[in-house]
Write a structure and sequence with these properties.
12 strands; Aspartate Aminotransferase, domain 1; 7-stranded mixed sheet; globular; alpha/beta; 5-stranded mixed sheet
Length: about 400
């Protein structure tokens, strides 16, 4: 592909990354290649391509494509674009990283864990809270992994000679604690750190630049942004990407080209959406803190919610997710969710519409009891609606709490 000159802003990169050669192709909109198989010019060409893909290498110019499960140009465009966003640092030497896209965020996380198990280092050190699916997968041992759940300051003490991965999410799901990525990388030593960057997105936080070995996203969320495409992605070193691609191929967790197109299209507006949603979330969190029915608000931008001073140093802003705990517990949470009219009661997050969910009953129902959020905790993904309309809707619902 044609190399794009280094832009000075992430907003410009988000619009143009992965689209550099469109003018040479004579098109303005990104093409979608729906082929499941590809004609082979010769048996030798197909054989060489198969060997290349089986070894985990990316496709090179002139190489035949063979089969969608191994490589697809629409998916590759999306991968190139997201890798560019996660490594963006103007006026500094580029960080070379590659993205590997999957059918879902959980498929992406599964592949990372499997790659460490295959490397003979199955022990994982994980910092809670995590997304419920990640927590449950690690605790189950389903992939042949072993897990130690620890506090952030205890990562180094939990590492053994069998440890192959450190796992954390920041901001954490659903109570939005911030974790010091650089400090955990320091504690990890030569053990790669996997950071779930779904809540922050590369607009607000780029963990690879802080030393993380793997950055994972549920691209279904902010990256797609419209609740109509599912996918996951890992951004990592070329060496680790080479380990992940064969796992993706043999397990079949591939991203389909139509979803890749939609996710790539979502990147163009990602900075605009995140900043606008964050501005609304900040106002909503401050308002929630003053409501008598609300016992506690979880939001990194509130006074006292960032004791380590990570905002501005690690993360460019507090984000657009807000959690709060109702004094009346589960009963109050159920009544509030049932009374909302503008905010949709549904799982997932990161879309243009505001969503609310009860983590303990839904996304975190599968985790161990000691890791579940409180019964009165609700999580709001703030969308693009007017903050006044959101406050009106929540105000009426809280009257039922």
């Amino acid at each position: 592909m044609v190399t794009m000159p280094n832009p000075e802003s992430l907003a410009s990169l988000a619009v143009h990354a992965g689209r550099e050669d469109l003018a040479d192709l004579g098109v303005h909109t990104m093409p979608i290649d729906l082929s499941t198989t590809n004609p082979l010019p010769t048996i030798e060409a197909g054989r060489d391509a198969y060997d290349n893909f089986a070894a985990g290498h990316p496709r090179t110019d002139g190489m035949t494509s063979v089969y969608r499960r191994a490589w697809n140009p629409t998916v590759a465009r999306f991968e190139e674009a997201l890798a560019a966003l996660e490594t963006f640092q103007p006026e500094r030497p580029p960080v070379h990283a590659e993205a590997v896209a999957f059918a879902s965020g959980m498929a992406a996380i599964t592949a990372v864990i499997l790659s460490r198990v295959a490397a003979g280092r199955p022990h994982v050190v994980a910092v809670r809270p995590l997304y419920g699916g990640t927590d449950a997968l690690l605790a189950s041992g389903l992939l042949g992994s072993e897990v130690s759940f620890v506090e952030p300051h205890a990562v180094a003490d939990a590492i053994t000679d069998r440890t192959g991965l450190i796992v954390l999410e920041t901001p954490s799901n659903p109570t939005l604690e911030l974790r010091d990525i650089a400090d955990i990388v320091r504690q990890a030593g030569d053990v790669p750190v996997m950071v779930d960057n779904t809540f922050a997105t590369p607009v607000l936080q780029r963990p690879l630049l802080l030393g993380a070995g793997f950055v994972v996203h549920s691209a279904t969320k902010y990256i797609g942004g419209h609740g109509d495409a599912m996918g996951g992605v890992v951004v990592t070193s070329p060496e680790h990407a080479t380990e992940l691609r064969p796992i993706r191929t043999v397990t079949g967790g591939v991203l389909d080209p139509w979803s890749a197109y939609l996710l790539h299209r979502g990147l163009a507006t990602l900075p605009l959406r995140v900043h606008a949603q964050q501005a609304t979330a900040s106002q909503l969190a401050a308002w929630l803190r003053e409501q008598p029915a609300v016992e506690r608000v979880f939001y990194p931008g509130l006074p006292g919610s960032d004791p380590e001073g990570l905002l501005g140093r690690q993360m460019a802003g507090p984000g657009a997710m807000v959690g709060f705990e109702l004094a009346g517990g589960f009963g109050s949470a159920e009544r509030v969710c049932g009374a909302l009219r503008l905010i949709t009661h549904a799982v997932s997050l990161g879309g243009v519409e505001s969503l609310i969910e009860h983590p303990a009953a839904l996304t975190h129902r599968v985790v161990a009891e000691e890791a579940q959020p409180g019964a009165g905790v609700l999580r709001v993904s703030v969308g693009l609606e007017s903050v006044d309309d959101l406050i009106t809707d929540l105000g009426k619902a809280l009257a039922h709490a």
